[in-house]
Amino acid sequence: MKNGTDSFVFLGHWPSAGSFGFNTDILATNLINLSVVFGILIFFGKGVLSDLLDNRKQRILNTIRNSEELRGKAIEQLEKARARLKKVEMEADEFRVNGYSEIEREKMNLINSTYKTLEQLENYKNETINFEQQKAINEVRQRVFQQALQGALGTLNSCLNNELHLRTINANIGMFGAMNEITD
């Protein structure tokens, strides 16, 4: 090192401050910088770090205490649940013993009720079929009667002339008059 400025890189000429540069010796600058940073961190960070660790320790202890309390409550609830389970199992056994006869009785009642309902439905079905058959028969009778009547009228109209028509009307009027006299 010939002079003190050989180890700095010249960045420019500043007339008021003189020359300014950086130390490019990586090993020398990194060790110095790291030792300064560690020293500052240890000096100022010791209190903060110990406070953070104490807070963390308190939170962990509180969590453990809470967990122990919850564990105790869970054990109590488990014991209560076991007692209820025993009681329910005993009741279930009792229901099983008594329930089979009840189930059979209800089953027979349901079967009987279903048979009665089926019989009623069968009767309703038969009544409906009979009604529809009668309705269809009556409709066919009416159509046959109308067709026969139209055929007879057509035959009468084609066969009768005016004179024969008037004689038939007079004969029918006479028969109605005779029938009226008989009924009176």
Task: Please write out the topology.
Elements: E1 8-14, E2 18-23, H1 26-159, H2 162-183
Antiparallel strand pairs: 1-2
Category by helix and strand content: mainly alpha
Total of DSSP H or I helical runs spanning 4+ residues:
2
Q: Please give the share of residues in helix.
A: over 70%
**Which regions contain 5 or more consecutive residues with pLDDT less than 50?**
1-17
Order of helices and strands: EEHH
Strand content: 5-15%
Order of strands, widest sheet: 1-2
Give structural notes.
By secondary structure, the protein is mainly α. Helix content is 85%, strand content 7%. It contains two helices and two strands; from the N terminus they run E-E-H-H. Strands 1-2 form a two-stranded antiparallel ribbon. The protein is elongated, with a radius of gyration of 60 Å.
